[in-house]
Design brief:
The protein is α/β, with parallel strands linked by helices. It is about 35% helix and about 20% strand. The strands form 3 sheets. Strands 5-2-1-6-7-11-10 form a 7-stranded mixed β-sheet, sandwiched between helices. Helix 1 runs parallel beside helix 5 and helix 5 runs antiparallel to helix 6. It is globular, with a radius of gyration of 14 Å.
Length: about 180
Amino acid sequence: MIYMLLGTGFEEMEAIAPLDLLRRAGLDVMTVGVNGKIVRGSHNIGIEADITLSEMDLTCLEMIILPGGLGGVTSVRASDEAMYALRFAWENGKFVAAICAGPTVLADLGITSGRQATCFPGCESGMGDAVMVPDAAAVRDGCLITGTSAGCAIPFGLELIKALKGEKEAERIREQIVIR
């Protein structure tokens, strides 16, 4: 199971675009409301999450995704349960992905330490000792996948598919949505 954490103030594009792409690829993804079932994004778009944090089953976790948005990142940081889920995924060799300001939360947990990563320009000071790759839309270093911004949500989503289902499936989805 793939879980996408949605905290109040998450960046909508960074959640919806990858979510759509993952589901197009036939992957099981559940959105997880950090602050309840109905979550408002940074542009006041309300999303009904599939489940809440207490309903996550970490025993079937394959990947966990954290969209950015300063409010969403703050919501996740404030949730012991969300932080535990991110740490659990990493410590159990599962994929951990974050985009925009989201990678700074992973840095707080030591996940990006010594690994190649990217984040929203200006958030680099929150990345600890990550090896920053500033001009990349998305970066994968083993089980860590990071993305730069809302404008990079599609390349980030395709990188998630590539990690889980391979280059061929990512290319199939890329062709399906006619990305240029």
